[in-house]
């Protein structure tokens, strides 16, 4: 199939695939538990899925940044997705990250994810080299036309230098190419402009793209995003405290913004665990992902706190700091802080 080149083009038709309605609510991006050899720990991953479902989450996002997808081989990606789909057992939609540098590589991941039974796909713009908005639009249109699954765009400028502008997102929402957006830009102004362009808080679901889902990946400002009209959140910290984010979402949906803000403030304090690893000694990814995994191990959800090589492990003192954050947030550890590997 030839790649379409214009920014404007023929719409690909109505939403297809097994995800029939707009997404909403709390959709955590799952951590990928690893054993001490770096292999996917499927037993721990299954427990993590059950931990999230028991808290009442509305969907699961496998193979995102929090899931260390960039570090996993294709075989390990397949193991993760197959395990998550089996454990979810159709109770909530499973979104599969198909993130890679170029359209042909993303297309291979998308076809594999669809074959395994993913309900929807999540892709960034192409990266490594910078792309023009026309090329970004062509990329998403090609993916949408080639694989029969709803497609969500993922805006994460920390990893992908080509931003998804509100103009491009709105156009791809209006013509049916995109089913939704996960916004991890940290640019609250741009997110608000997009929401206004899609009809604003009052007109989000009667505006130019009524079925389009907007999810914030900024877990510290969820209450503000929901107030502005976002449909939900994809919080990395939601692995650790999914029930807290569900309470926040339900309070916002009920219009109880004081309760939503109080829950958000508790989660902000808990999020401080991402800095448990000293900045002078390790990368921020090592610290944040190591903290989430250490917390899950301390809570008895996963077996090991291992992160993918070459990320550095947390020290025992850093793990103790994670434990202190859990206790302060009302989440009581059940495991000791040593032996995090």
UniProtKB/TrEMBL annotation:
Q: Where is this region: Disordered?
A: 1-20
Q: What InterPro entries does this protein map onto?
A: Aldolase_TIM, DapA-like, Schiff_base-form_aldolases_AS
Q: Which UniProt keywords apply?
A: Lyase, Schiff base
Note the SMART domains from the entry: DHDPS (SM01130)
Organism from which the protein derives = Streptomyces siderophoricus
Which family would the database say this protein is a member of? Belongs to the DapA family.
Q: Which Gene3D superfamilies match?
A: Aldolase class I
Record carries keyword Magnesium: no
Q: What is this protein called?
A: Dihydrodipicolinate synthase family protein
Q: Which PROSITE patterns match?
A: DHDPS_2
| Lineage of the species this protein comes from | Bacteria, Bacillati, Actinomycetota, Actinomycetes, Kitasatosporales
Q: Superkingdom, according to UniProt?
A: Bacteria
Do you know which Pfam families this protein is assigned to?
DHDPS
């Amino acid at each position: 199939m030839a790649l379409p080149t214009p920014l404007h083009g023929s719409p690909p038709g109505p939403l297809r695939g097994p995800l029939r309605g707009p997404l909403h609510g709390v959709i955590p991006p799952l951590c990928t538990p690893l054993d001490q050899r770096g292999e996917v720990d499927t037993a721990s991953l299954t427990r993590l899925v059950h931990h999230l479902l028991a808290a009442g989450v509305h969907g699961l996002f496998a193979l995102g940044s929090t899931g260390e997808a960039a570090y996993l081989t294709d075989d390990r990606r397949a193991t993760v997705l197959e395990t998550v789909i089996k454990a979810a057992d159709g109770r909530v939609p499973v979104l599969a990250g198909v993130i890679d540098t170029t359209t042909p590589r993303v297309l291979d991941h998308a076809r594999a994810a669809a074959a395994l039974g993913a309900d929807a796909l999540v892709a960034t713009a192409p990266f490594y080299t910078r792309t023009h908005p026309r090329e970004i639009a062509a990329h998403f249109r090609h993916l949408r036309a080639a694989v029969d699954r709803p497609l969500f765009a993922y805006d994460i400028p920390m990893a992908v230098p080509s931003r998804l502008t509100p103009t491009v997102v709105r156009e791809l929402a209006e013509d049916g190419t995109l089913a939704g957006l996960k916004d991890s830009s940290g640019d609250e102004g741009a997110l608000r402009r997009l929401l206004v362009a899609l009809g604003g808080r009052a007109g989000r679901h009667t505006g130019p793209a009524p079925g389009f889902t907007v999810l914030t990946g900024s877990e510290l400002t969820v209450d503000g995003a929901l107030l502005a009209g976002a449909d939900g959140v994809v919080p990395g910290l939601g692995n650790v405290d999914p029930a807290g984010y569900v309470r926040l979402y339900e309070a916002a949906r009920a219009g109880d913004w004081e309760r939503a803000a109080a829950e958000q403030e508790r989660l902000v304090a808990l999020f401080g665990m991402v800095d448990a690893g000293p900045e002078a000694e390790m990368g921020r990814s090592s610290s944040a992902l190591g903290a989430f995994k250490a917390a899950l191990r301390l809570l008895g959800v996963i077996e090991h706190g291992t992160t993918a090589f070459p990320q550095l492990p947390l020290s025992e003192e850093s793990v103790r700091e994670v434990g202190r954050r859990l206790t302060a947030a009302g989440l009581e550890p059940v495991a000791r802080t040593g032996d995090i590997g």
